[in-house]
Amino acid sequence: WVCHTPIRLRELIRTIRTARTQAEEREMIQKECAAIRSSFREEDNTYRCRNVAKLLYMHMLGYPAHFGQLECLKLIASQKFTDKRIGYLGAMLLLDERQDVHLLMTNCIKNDLNHSTQYVQGLALCTLGCMGSSEMCRDLAGEVEKLLKTSNSYLRKKAALCAVHVIRKVPELMEMFLPATKNLLSEKNHGVLHTSVVLLTEMCERSPDMLAHFRKLVPQLVRILKNLIMSGYSPEHDVSGISDPFLQVRILRLLRILGKGDDDSSEAMNDILAQVATNTETSKNVGNAILYETVLTIMDIKSESGLRVLAINILGRFLLNNDKNIRYVALTSLLKTVQTDHNAVQRHRSTIVDCLKDLDVSIKRRAMELSFALVNGNNIRGMMKELLYFLDSCDPEFKADCASGVFLAAEKYAPSKRWHIDTIMRVLTTAGSYVRDDSVPNLIQLITNSVEMHAYTVQRLYKALLDDISQQPLVQVASWCIGEYGDLLISGQCEEEEPIQVTEDEVLDVLEGLLVSNLSSPVTRGYSLTAIMKLSTRFSSVNRIKKVVSIYGSSIDVELQQRAVEYNALFKKYDHMRPALLERMPIMEKTASNGPTEIVQTNGEAEPSVVEPKHPPPVGQPASQVKNTVFGLVSRCLSLMAFYLFDLSKTVNFLSIGIPPMTAYNKNGLKIDFTFERANPNPNVAVITIHASNSTEADMTDFVFQAAVPKTFQLQLLSPSSNVVPALNQGTVTQVIRVLNQQKLRMRIKLTYIHKGSAVQDLAEVNNFPPQSWQ
Amino acid sequence: MDGWMDGWMDGWMDGWMGGWVDGLLLTIGITSSFQMQFMLLFSRQGKLRLQKWYVPLSDKEKKKITRELVQTVLARKPKMCSFLEWRDLKIVYKRYASLYFCCAIEDQDNELITLEIIHRYVELLDKYFGSVCELDIIFNFEKAYFILDEFLLGGEAQETSKKNVLKAIEQADLLQEDTKVSFSPSFLMVWSRNAAEVRDSCRGSEQADWV
Fold it and tell me: What CATH number does the domain located at B19-210 have?
């Protein structure tokens, strides 16, 4: 048995770095870990420090090091400074405040907080301030408070930040630090000043009473800031000609919090803010950092208008700065102030629009958001030109948002209906595949309501279809339009531009082409079949249409088949109703602000709907909203159809109203149902609500629902409504799950609860998700 | 049946989201409006050189965050700005030679001053090691931590004077030379050697290497 000296840390590092493969490295690590483990077992005091240090290195490489946790505690308890240093470092890296092991540190830390050497006290303060749990903070707050009052500035500054951490963990303890804050700001030491300001900031943010109490510090803070600016060169704190920028920024931030909503305080800081704003050197990042903070403060407090304009102008200058970081920050700030200081920001509109051409993605995004915020009735034409140009050339990740923004802006400020339609056309033809699905019904509504533009619109859309049938939103809107206004198309009635000559057959060729094309999505096919059907009351080629409809009666696409069957029925049994049913859509009232949400759920089709009386309204929507949907307006048809077509009952809904709920789990009296909605604004996110109910005679307590999904999905769980599932179905626990998915959804669930005194755990798979939840 | 089950289990275990999600911890979460949540140093190959976490997270979560963030930052092109939005945090990063310095700050925080914080830390490392390079951080990672812990505490700057931070490190280093910590501060004044001297005498030889 040869007892060898554990190898040195740097030797180990050197060795590990010679490994040429992951496997080789793993082997070295395993060997060393084994050696370290046996060394730990031997309770070797001499080399414990070295071994833990090596363990920390290996931990950084990603290898497990939990067997070193207790060793860290032993090192902390040692009298050697070297041991303590590594021990505390190890504790901060390996110990997790959620484990109980860290509580064993409390006593050591307490002793070290009272150590005779300030560097040991410093280690303890640092560790407590970095990772102290609530229990530790409670136990040691008194020690920290004591050190906050010491005259030793090395310790005082650390105690201040440690106090910040204590307050964050245990807000109720804030009061006990109040006396110690009394003369913190009279310190000359910058470290103490800086950390004191941080502490005061934390207290003011958390408590309105503290905030009110500390407002009296404003004059003192102003004085300190003034001294920093006016004082001569101080080598110790100088950064590119600016004296202690870190302290300046923190003071400005505290002033912001103190001045917010308070006239007197705001006035007291007005001058110093103006001074900083005008005198700070802007050639380097550090000066701009201070200016930035100053601007944020000016905008948040009750500053006089001159000061606000000064602030916005600083941001305007930032926009022209060569440094892209500064430009980014300017755009972010302007976005925050555009509502409150709209006119001031408008003055920088052209610079902002130029930022659309920036190479940086984040800058482009902000510039786009800001541009949309600046659009108004006066600048709509010019702005739209820029934004459409941007839409043409921007990255795909922007197109959807930009298109939506254009639609919104056009709707609000369109100078004319013709301009509006043209703008929509431009978006659909240039970015048609990126347009959100929920834009389709919105556009349809818009077109319907622009009565005098119908002929022009249908003509333009028809021509667009001749060019390109790949962009689904465009094709869907076009199909719908042709179905509605096909008669105008063939009659050559267009006033706005040269009317085209087109025959019924040509139009039907185009629509039938959509049905057979590989490029068309199932939804698009639905649109075109319906459009063809509608033309049966507008065109004379009814036989052709009848033939098409009957062919699709045996389509393998279930949706298409259903429609075709229904349309066939219309021809055969209910022909007298056909004209009324397929009549022009009336002008639709604007729905409430939730318009898109509802429409997303209904497949985006503006078709007459049949709401079977026994169908529940779409999940998550009150009944009144269903009534107000665009499609609900065709109510005169509804009752008629419901009456006459009830024998097609099972399938007569042209719309899918909601996604049906399902039972995900049902065992031992615990039943978990899932209900679904599509999230707004991202329709690819499925929002699932779980409803857990308990039919046994005893409550299920400590109920925890967990879920896991395959890697291709993303999952988010919000907090449950409670963790007791009451007995005898007296209530349910609900919890919301959000899944980002575009494929067949699979989920594994894990349930744990306590029932009649014993702990129950179960795992289950959920595979029976309805297809609509992931399509 | 057995074969099928096995295959499916593997599929789950392997490519699975990284843990059971139980609604109690969602993302990192905002602790207050201004706080640095963590700082990561990593190489251009994505190797972690230092990780300082100022919020409580499990090892698994830290690994996941690190992996994601490293990937995101390394994918950035040189012309892009030093800030990016990630989850509900702002990431401030800067590359110094072969090392990326990456900080996660909260929504209300000042990105520009965070760049200065990063720069100050680099300056401290540079002064301590004398023209610092990645190798210094690799071989002396514990010292990099010690320096960071004298500069920041709980994610905030505790000392704004470069000189004072370096002096404290120097004194603490000297304390390591002795077996027992029973010195009072006055005794330390007798030692006048500076840290650079001590370190230079160590470079190359291992005698004074204490770990």
Answer: 3.30.450.60
